[in-house]
Every structure is written in C-alpha cells, then in structure tokens.
Design goal:
Elements (H helix, E strand, L loop, with lengths): L2 H14 L2 H8 L3 H15 L4 E3 L4 E3 L1 H25 L5 E7 L1 H8 L3 H7 L3 E7 L13 E5 L7 E9 L1 E5 L1 H7 L15 E2 L10 E5 L2 E5 L6 E2 L2 H9 L5 E4 H10 L3 E3 L8 E8 L6 H16 L7
Parallel strand pairs: 3-4, 3-5, 8-11
Antiparallel strand pairs: 1-2, 5-14, 6-14, 7-12, 7-13, 9-10
Helix pairs in contact: 1-2, 1-4, 2-3
Pfam family, one: LysR_substrate
Protein name: HTH-type transcriptional regulator DmlR
Keywords: DNA-binding, Transcription, Transcription regulation
Amino acid sequence: MDRLDAMRLYTRIVERRSFTLAANDMEVPRSTVTKVIRQMETRLGVRLLQRTTRVVRPTLDGEAYYRRCLAILDDIEDAEGAFSGALPTGTLRIEVQGTLARHFLLPGLPDFFTQYPQIEVVMSESDRWVDIVQEGVDCVLRYGYLRDSELVGRQLAMLDHLTCATPAYLQQYGTPADIAGLAGHRMVGIRSITSGNVNPLSFRVGESTQTVTLAAALSVTGTESYLAAIRLGLGIAQVPRFHVEGDLASGALVQILPAFAPPPVPVSLVYQRSRQLSPRVRVFMEWAARRFDDTHAALPD
C-alpha cells in the first residue's frame, strides 16, 4: 500500500474508531490495517493510536497527523479535479432525517446522479443526533438548531411550521381563538431524544416567542409516530407545513391559530469543523441547496 492509500486508511481508522470498520470501508483485510499502521508508526517514530478492546483513539501526535493527512488528501483531490476537469468520484456517506429524505432529497436524486454519475451515495435515515466522526459520515442533513461546536453547518432553508388538529378533535374540545384559548386542550408530545423532555408548543407573538405546554396523553420521539398520532386525533400538534399539506387540502387536518404561527425551523447540511470540504460534499451541498429552493421551502433571509 502506497503512502497516500495508507493516509486514507489512517484517517478512516481515526474517524471510525475501529480497525475492523475502517477495513470494511476500505475493502482490505483487517490484517493489512494492522500491518500498515505498524509500518507508519515505525516510519514516523511516534505512536499514532491508542488501542483498547472497545475503541481506537488517536494520541496527541496521532491527532496532529490525522489533520495533516486530511489536508493533504483534500488538496490532492481538489487539484486533480481542477486540472483534469473530472467530476467528483467516490462514496458520499450522508445521514438524513427520514421525512426530509423522502420529501426533498429522494425525488431529486435521479437528477443528481445524472450530473455526478461517479458518486455513490450511502444514505442512512434517523431522527437522532448523529456522531459524524464516530459513525464515519461525511455530512448530515439536520432539522433544527445546531448545538455541536465541532460541526459546521450551511443553512439550506427555513421550514414553515403550523399548528393543527383533526376536525373530530376540534369538535370535541373546541377551536381556540387565541393562545389563552388553549387552556383545557391536549397536545401530542414530541420528546427530545437528547434531553428526554417533551417539547412545548411555540407561538410567535409580535417579535417574541411564547411557549405553552399542554397535557399529553401520548409523547413520542419519532416523526412518523408523531404524524400518525396527530392524524388519529390525539391532540394539537405543531409540524412543518410540508408534512401535512395533503391533510390540510383534504380536510383531514385543520390549521389553527394561524395568527400565532410557530417560528420557522432551519434545515442545515452539517460537516466536521476539522475537515475541508471534499469535492463530493461540496457538489452535494450546492445541489441540496438548489433542491430545497426548487421544492419551495422558505429560504432564509
């Protein structure tokens, strides 16, 4: 294995925290991984990795070498693409919240593959917050506000939200005319995976935001279960408009309190702060931004 391939293998080990997972990603035997790392450490005269029975972590020297390897590999990929005029190639690993994938990304992927036929996309779907480095993901399409300082995000869109319920629910509990009218109502709770808390309902009142927590017979962590519970009439809920456009058009759901709409929520494409953008991630980011624009998501000011 030449030095560049050894660098690629080493960066994968650091990102995956595992010899076995890195070997699978690079499609080489695990014995080759062990041999290459031993040769690198001998040549450099430093220990690069700390190995335990459960995880592999870089030493201080290993972390510094990892960052240098990333810069070198990204520069080579950029240079070759610029001078050869070649389109980006390779595997792009992305994590997407499931409903964003189905509504925004998947319908447009045939166009993406027409433009970039040599990129293979490995897409995972989840509502949870993903550890990009640990799980070997190039970028994540995230819904909500960013919290991790180790990540960089490009905001692609602001998604409009609304408050809604079924006609049967409103017939039983009444239709509130204002926020005070929510007293005695019930909501379907969406529970934060990270904190375990049920998120309150949020309403824009002038320039400020007012939150209200109602009794919830059911609280869930998954988007699909949340939408199903709303459609079953289990309470008031707040959702991105794109989730329920069909329900609103058919009358299955009714928007309430439109004068106090929830604040819009950003959608961002997130990647590691420590990494330069690879050509694959860069072209995907630009395509995704156009995709959200084309599907009429409300763009940020």
